[in-house]
Structure formats: C-alpha cells, structure tokens
Amino acid sequence: MAHELRGRKVAILATDGVERVELEQPRGALHGAGAQTEVLSIHPGEIQARQGDLDPAGTFPVDRRVSDASTDDYDALLLPGGTMNPDQLRADKDAVGFVKAFVNSGKPVATICHGPWTLVEADVVRGRRFTSWPSIRTDLRNAGAEVVDEEVVIDGQFTSSRSPADLPAFCAAIIEQFAHAARPGA
C-alpha cells in the first residue's frame, strides 16, 4: 500500500498565491505512496503560499519552470487552488499549454478548489463532470462542464474536490486514480 505509486512522477503546477494546505497535503500523500513530485511554476526560485488566500504561509521551492517542462516527464498532474494561483496560471500561455497537452495525453489530472480555472482556460472541461470552490462553478458551467457539489468527483482522467475540508477524501482518491492509470508505454 505504501508504495503503490513507486516509479511515478507527478507534476504539481502552482505559482504565487497557492493555498499551502492544497499543495502540501496532497504532495505528502503522494510521497507517502512512493511517488516523486516536482513543483512547476511560471517563474524560477520560490513561490509564495497563502492560508485562506490572505495570510502569508511560507514558500515552496520551484523545481522547474513550466516552460522548460515536458508532459512526457510526468505520469500525473496536480493543480492546487488558492484564488491568486490559478488566476495567474490561466493568464500564462506556457502553463495553459502544458495543461492542455497533459489533458490531451490522457494522463490523470487532479484539481481542488480554484484549480479548475486553468482547465477552463485550456478549454478541456466541456462535457466533463467537476466540482470546485463555489465561486468558480459558473465558469466551469459556461465552459461546458457538468458541475456538482460533492466531496470528490472522478470523471475519466479527472479528479476534483471543492476545498481544503475535502483534502482527506481528495488525497485518497488521487492516490487510487494515479495508481490505476496506465503507465506510459504500457
């Protein structure tokens, strides 16, 4: 059980304003299951985390700029929330292009809270079922998604959750989804 993701590499796409707990808890769960993770961002150095969008909550080192990353290097993608984080990512052509290419690869994508905003910008939610933070549900619907208010929603390659309150269920779901995904070349 503790090594079900051994040999898997997960990209975590985030930037300044990421909700700390939405990056930290899933990453810890992924590491606990044996996965490797890399934080990708739109700039090098460190990203500033937040708690409740307002309070500074430390930093995370950036492993690689998203403009220098290839979807071929990763088995799964995690898009944490925080209001500022995905709002900046959806305005960055490299981040949006990476997300679109990742979805087109068929590999699993997990997102929580405001994270789906980048998926909306990449135009990959049409006809899919998602949940999210309440304030972006209209954006998801307008982009063609079916939106529900549930703790965790799994639709094909996508796993989504609403908020930090859902993290225990979200973390369990992404480990299961990432473990069951076909390995590249398999």
Structure report:
The structure is a single chain. Helix 1 packs across helix 6 (167-180). With 186 residues, the chain is of the alpha/beta class. The strands form three sheets. It has a seven-stranded mixed β-sheet, sandwiched between helices. A three-stranded mixed β-sheet has the order 2-4-5. Strands 9-10 form a two-stranded parallel sheet. It is built from six helices and twelve strands. The two termini are 21 Å apart. It has helices at 20-32, 84-89, 93-105, 116-121, 137-142, 167-180, and strands spanning 9-13, 18-19, 36-41, 46-51, 55-61, 64-65, 76-79, 109-112, 129-130, 146-147, 152-155, 158-161.
In short:
31% of the residues lie in helices and 26% in strands. The longest helix is centred in the last third of the chain and has 14 residues, at 167-180. It has helices spanning 20-32, 84-89, 93-105, 116-121, 137-142, 167-180, and strands at residues 9-13, 18-19, 36-41, 46-51, 55-61, 64-65, 76-79, 109-112, 129-130, 146-147, 152-155, 158-161.
Number of helices: 6
Low-confidence stretches: none
Q: Separation of termini?
A: 21 Å
Q: Please give the share of residues in helix.
A: 25-40%
Percent of residues in beta strands: 25-35%
Biggest sheet strand order reads 6-3-1-7-8-12-11
- Regarding quaternary structure, what we see is single chain
Topology as H/E string? EEHEEEEEHHEHEHEEEH
Sheet with most strands: 7 strands, mixed
Mean pLDDT: 95
Question: Rg to the nearest angstrom?
Answer: 15 Å
Structural class: alpha/beta
**What's the total number of strands?**
12
Overall form: globular
